[in-house]
Specification:
173 residues
Length: 173
């Protein structure tokens, strides 16, 4: 085969492999159905569903920050020093173990956005948006799972549907 033919084929092959690899790496933590196993089998169904604990009781930064925040081990301990967890006592023991060792619980982030996107929980909470509008029926989930792919089109459609600003600079700083 001549170099004239071989080089374009090789370039096309490399670009195809790089594109597939890049898309796969980008999609992995952002894909629908992403539900990593956590260090503690925390059930939003038990906490937010059965026990009606409001999301912002644990995710207390949502109304005053760009991030909702993952609860600290102290937040969990404040309740579970008294509530032993009749449905999952072994998981409550794990929480108490992290507290005793003075270690944070190494939760694996389920909902994340690329670094080039600026999202503010505070602004959405202030507008009356519920957690379920983006995160789905979280109060029914024993293990948190991504139910939507947060791509630009999804966000822009929501902004337009709700009369929110859809200028590029709103989300891309």
């Amino acid at each position: 085969m001549s170099k004239k033919i071989l080089i374009p084929i090789l370039v096309l092959f490399v670009l195809t492999v790089a594109s597939i690899a890049g898309y796969t790496v980008y999609q992995y933590p952002f894909r629908i159905g992403y539900a990593p196993e956590q260090p503690i089998n925390f059930s939003h169904k038990i906490h937010a569903g059965d026990n009606n604990i409001p999301c912002q009781f644990c995710h207390l930064y949502a109304r005053r920050s760009i991030v909702a925040g993952i609860p600290s081990v102290q937040t969990c301990y404040n309740c579970h020093k008294l509530v032993t967890g009749t449905k999952n006592p072994e998981e409550v023991k794990k929480v108490l173990g992290y507290w005793d060792r003075k270690q944070p619980i190494p939760w694996i982030k389920v909902f994340d956005l690329p670094d080039f996107v600026h999202f503010s929980h505070k602004r959405h909470v202030a507008k009356g948006k519920t957690c379920q509008e983006c995160h789905g029926p979280i109060e029914t989930m024993d293990r948190v799972e991504r139910i939507t792919f947060f791509n630009m089109g999804w966000c822009v459609n929501c902004h337009r549907k709700n009369g929110a600003d859809d200028d590029c600079w709103v989300c891309h700083k």
